[in-house]
């Protein structure tokens, strides 16, 4: 199974390398469109940078993955909180059970109390 995972990762790496080599042309990224940059006061936000196209592609994929992970983490908050509440309730009930068993075994011989605990 480990070798299959390595093979899949190698194929993905090869595809990404080929994609990067095929898209090496430089593109200009700007923060604002030309029309919006002409609005008074917006010139402060206007920046541009030239980067290879594959950086833009990989950056978009990475940003999408991060956004998806954060979105899913926020969406699952209710389930995590519910699981934490249930875990706390289980611990509380286990403590109560231990206390009640200790109280029931108070007058018994230690060996008999251990036998009762094992089943």
TrEMBL record:
Organism: Lutimaribacter degradans
Domain of life from the UniProt record: Bacteria
Protein name: Lipopolysaccharide assembly protein LapA domain-containing protein
């Amino acid at each position: 199974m480990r070798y299959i995972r390595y093979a899949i990762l190698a194929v993905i790496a090869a595809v990404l390398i080929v994609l990067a080599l095929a898209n090496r042309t430089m593109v200009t990224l700007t923060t604002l469109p030309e029309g919006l940059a002409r609005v008074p006061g917006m010139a402060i936000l206007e920046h541009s940078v030239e980067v290879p196209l594959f950086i833009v592609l990989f950056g978009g994929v990475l940003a999408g993955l991060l956004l998806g992970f954060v979105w899913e983490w926020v969406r699952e908050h209710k389930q995590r909180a519910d699981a934490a509440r249930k875990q706390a309730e289980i611990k509380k009930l286990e403590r109560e059970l231990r206390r009640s068993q200790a109280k029931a075994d108070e007058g018994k011989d230690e060996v008999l109390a251990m036998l009762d605990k094992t089943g």
